[in-house]
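Reading group handout, session on sequence-to-structure problems. Before we discuss, look at one worked example. The prompt was deliberately terse, the way you'd type it at a terminal:

> structure DUF642 domain-containing protein

The input record follows.
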Amino acid sequence: MRGAAVLLSVLLVATTCHSAFSFVEGKLQSSKTLAYVFMIKFSQEVEFVHHNAGLVENGNFELSPKQSDMKGTEMIGRYALPKWEISGFVEYIKAGQKQGDMLLVVPEGAYAVRLGNEASIKQRLNLTKGMYYSITFSAARTCAQEETLNISVSPEWGVLPMQTMYSSNGWDSYAWAFKALISPVEFVIHNPGVEEDPACGPLIDSVAITYLYPPRPTNKNILKNGGFEEGPYVFPNTTWGVLIPPNIEDKHSPLPGWMVESLKAVKYIDVEHFSVPQGRRAVELVAGKESAIAQVARTVIGKTYTLSFAVGDASNSCEGSMVVEAFAGKDTLKVPYESKGKGGFKRAVLKFVAGSTRTRIMFYSTFYTMRSDDFSSLCGPVIDDIKLLSLRGT
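And the output record:
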């Protein structure tokens, strides 16, 4: 329904303002014809929207450079990598290739790229001006040094820290969101690092993009996107979810409606690979009190509200005693959950009286937890189905 609602507004704009979307072509002879064409095109575009997410061109780097554009593993020439423009020392890495004693693993397909010092890859994207988008990509460190990646879509940019790795195989998927202020745009992944060994640069694979539809409060939930159904693209063939980096501003969050107010990321998980309490998506709080999400809701001073939510585990061998702390302004609730690491959840409710016209809703995990199957992957409790409602008669 969210896709249909958005498309209705987009279609009306498109037919009157000649936007980048071209749904109806030619002249319409009558209102019946208009309605008929509208229904046909509308149904076609609903199908389009639900599938208009995935890899950018050669986003998995399986289209290889020519041998004449290679010098060992280094790609030579700005356009050596098909569909991309490269700058600096960029390597084309094959799965199973060795770096010293370390075997380089590629999460999807057979190839990835490695960015050396001050190296970058760039692609031009044709987008819809004014729409929100989220980029998802997978990355891995190849050395122990602290690393960051600069992500930019002209004229916006962000810095994603890679100091903490959350999965045991060394690869994590990251999300970054932006608003398309112009089109086309230049999308760049840049390694700002200055290492003595250029082979210490990060590996990049599987670059994808999706629309983000700004959610709105409803009469059934004052919070926006309380079920986390709107969010970044999740790669169907990976099993580690997508990290939402810290310090993301609300209007450009890959998790629309929510802010990551912490030092560490939160993890966006899907029902295909994890246990999810409600719907198809949820959030895993993977770094204790350093992994928090928040949203500011409009409230009426003196009115009573209920904040309800689900707490569980992702069925990813995250075992032990967990506690989720929920905050609504100055009120708080600690929800204990005993996880066996095999899925499941419980529900909780925080009742409070609003003391302000804007109430901050926040969640974090009290403890740090490691997966019991590898003892190296950070994990934590799952939260989902968050609802904020006012009590009548208060």
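Points for discussion. First: Residues 105 and 167 are 13 Å apart (CA to CA). Second: The longest strand covers residues 203-212.
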